[in-house]
Each structure stands twice: as C-alpha cells, then as structure tokens.
Design goal:
Length: 293
C-alpha cells in the first residue's frame, strides 16, 4: 500500500472528472459510487475501483451513532472530506451539504459549498431537494461549483415525511418527482441521486434526463448506483434497507478478531516472545547486575 503522499506503482492515476461522469450517461459503463468517511476506507474503495466517493451526511448515523442526519455540521463534513481527499487517487470526491447549510438562501448555499471546496477538499457538492432548490443549484453552478442533485427520499426531511419512506408511489407524487428532477437538471446539476423511489419511476426519469441518474433503492435502470459503505460491508448496527445488498460481513470479522484478542490477553497468550523486543545479552547481564533499590 502506498502512503498519502506517494504515488501508486506505475505512476500517477488520473482523477475521474465531472465531464467524464456526465459522458457516462451516453457512453457507459454505469457509475459505481459509494460513501466513505475516513482515510483507510477511502483508500480501500479507491483501490477497488469505484468512480465516485461521497462523504455523505449519513456519517451522522453510521459514524456518530445518531438516529438521523440533521445534527451533522458543515465543519464535520469538511473534517471527513479532508481525510477522504488524502486517500483518493482516482475517484471523484463529492461532499453532502448538511441540513441548514444551504436551505436559507442561494447565497448561503454558495458560501457553504465554497467552504466545502476550500476546507473539505471536495470536487463537487450534493444537495437534497427538487424544484424549490433550483435557484440554489443554478447560483452554485454559475460560480463554478459542480452540483449533484438528490430527489426522492430526502433524509433531511425525515420528520416532515414521517420516517425514511419510499417516495413517489402515487401518480401525483411521481409527477412531482419528475418535475423536481427536470428542474434540478435545468438548473445545471451534472448528475442526480434518486433515493428510494419505485423502479418504474426511476427508469422514466433516467430516460428523460440528459444527466446521469445515480440510484439508491431506485432499481437497475439508473445510470449509476450508490450504497452506504457500512450497509454493503456489514458494518451497520441498526436496520438496513432492503436495497442495501451485503457484500461482506466485516462487522462479524471485527467482533471475532477482538474477542479472540481479549481472550488471548486474559489467558496470557498475547503477546508471545516473537511479538516482544529484546535486550542484547550484554545489556541484559549488566541490568541484572544492578542491585535493586
Ligand atoms: O448521506 C448519504 O450517504 C447519501 C446517500 C445515501 C445518497 O445521501
């Protein structure tokens, strides 16, 4: 493994860019996106070949142990962004704009996104909301901030929605989501996350938009997919949604490893002699010769 300032064997790797992500709509392959919140995990997912890494405000739930994302702050997102940015050699880095860091006004959105790019080392930002956020998106894009939209289930509205529920199930709600997605695209977003909506609706939005759609609980017709890393590797302690396919059980591996370590410590099996440092025989003898006080 190479260190944060080293280059990988074979020379520099080119970062995935915003125009390349836009082109993937027509050219494929589907965009593979995942969340990460720290240097080690970010390096692992980058080496594994994902195209985009999101420092999601989901960090409130999977890193901080909160029951929703609302308390996550701009400074916390920036802190995690810096750690992840140091690790990424290829993947594009997106930062989630936390609750109340953009809703107040387009000017507030520009200021917060600017801070995220300067202090969090993000290459683009993601913003929850539909038509009502179009002006915010347009103003950020106008000053050179690449924006990813996010419609469907907006976790920052958990209280208004009455929980983390599938959205767009009625004709009226589906039409509203279609209008929202169109508005976010027209405002200049370079891609859009579709969260927890019926597959058929996601397919319709995907076929209509010119920007790539990234699905999470939105079926296979999207132009890309995102999962919360902790859900997909078995590190989430609470309920995981039905769309979060589990690719590994890292949580169980950690539990077994730490239980075995604790047992070895209690039974005197750790550390072994080969895990210990030794004095030279000369120093050892001279130490033994010193009288105890
Ligand atoms: O915060 C997050 O991780 C997200 C993804 C679920 C899209 O917004």
């Amino acid at each position: 493994m190479y260190g944060p300032t080293n280059l990988p064997p074979g020379g520099p790797v080119r970062k995935v860019t915003v125009p390349e992500l836009r082109d993937r709509k027509a050219q494929g392959p589907a965009i593979a996106m995942v969340t990460a919140y720290d240097f080690t995990m970010a390096r692992l997912v980058d080496e594994a070949g994902v195209d985009v890494v999101l420092v999601g405000d989901s960090l409130g739930m999977v890193v901080q142990g909160l029951s929703n994302t609302l308390p996550v702050t701009l400074d916390e997102v920036c802190y995690h962004g810096r750690a992840v940015a140091r690790a990424l050699l290829r993947a594009h880095l997106v930062g989630d704009m936390p609750f109340m860091s953009f809703q107040v006004s387009p000017a507030q959105a520009i200021e917060s996104a600017g801070k995220m790019m300067k202090e969090g080392a993000f290459e683009s930002v993601k913003i929850e909301g539909g038509a009502e956020m179009a002006e915010h998106v347009a103003r950020m894009v106008s000053v050179g901030i690449p924006v990813m939209g996010h419609v469907g289930l907006a976790p920052q509205r958990v209280h208004a929605l009455g929980g983390f529920r599938v959205q767009g199930k009625t004709l009226e709600a589906a039409e509203q989501l279609l209008r929202d997605a169109r508005a976010v695209e027209a405002a200049g977003a370079f891609s859009i996350v579709l969260e927890s909506i019926p597959r058929e609706l996601a397919a319709r939005i995907t076929s209509e938009l010119r920007i790539p759609t990234i699905g999470i609980g939105a079926g296979p017709e999207c132009d890309g997919q995102i999962l919360v890393l902790h859900d997909m590797i078995g590190l989430s302690l609470g309920h995981t949604p039905k769309f979060a396919r589990r690719y590994a059980n890292v949580g169980e591996a950690i539990s077994h490893a730490v239980a075995a370590y604790a047992e070895d410590v209690r039974e005197g099996r750790f550390p072994a002699d080969e895990e210990s440092y030794h004095l030279s025989s000369e120093v050892r003898e001279r130490l033994l010769a010193i009288r105890r006080s």
